[in-house]
Amino acid sequence: MPNEGELSAELQGLNKAAVDLLVNVHIISSIAPRWPDEVQGNWLDEVQQMRERLDDYVRVAQEFASALD
Q1: pLDDT for the residue 58
Q2: CA trace torsion 41, 45, 50, 51 (10° rounding)
Q3: 43, 29 in Cβ contact below 8 A?
Q4: What is the mean pLDDT of residues 14-43?
Q5: How many H-runs (helices) and E-runs (strands) does the chain carry?
Q6: What is the pTM of this model?
Q7: pLDDT of residue 4
Q8: Residues 22/28/26/35 CA torsion (nearest 10 deg)
Q9: N-term to C-term CA, the chain
Q10: Sequence-separated (6 or more) residues with CB below 8 Å from residue 28
Q11: Is a pLDDT exceeding 90 seen at residue 3?
Q12: Which helix (H) or strand (E) holds 54?
C-alpha cells in the first residue's frame, strides 16, 4: 500500500510533466508559422492527439474516483 509520501511524489511528478508539456507545446507552436504548411498540419494533428489523450486521462481519473464513491 503506497504511503502519503509516495503519492505526493507521484502527484508532484505528474504536475511537473503536465507543465513541461504545456510549456514545450507552446514554445514549439510559437515557431510553427515559419514551417511549411504540411509540417504545420502535422503539428496540429499531433497537438490534437495529445489533447485527446489528456481528455482520456481526465476521464480515467474521474471514473476511478467515481467507482470508489
Answers
A1: 96
A2: 100
A3: yes
A4: 97
A5: 2, 0
A6: 0.81
A7: 84
A8: -140
A9: 19
A10: 43
A11: no
A12: helix 37-68
CA angle 22, 57, 39 (to 5 degrees): 45
Which residue has cell 510553427?
32
What does pLDDT average to over the chain? Answer: 94
Q: Could you give the CA distance from residue 12 to residue 19 in angstroms, rounded to a whole number? A: 11
Q: Per-residue pLDDT averaged across 34-58, rounded?
A: 97
To which residue does cell 467507482 refer?
67
Give residue for cell 496540429: 44
Read off the amino acid at residue 37. D
| Residue from 45, 63, 54 nearest 19 by CA | 54
Distance CA 29, CA 51 (A): 14
Is the dihedral angle over the CA atoms 5, 1, 60, 43 positive or is it negative?
positive
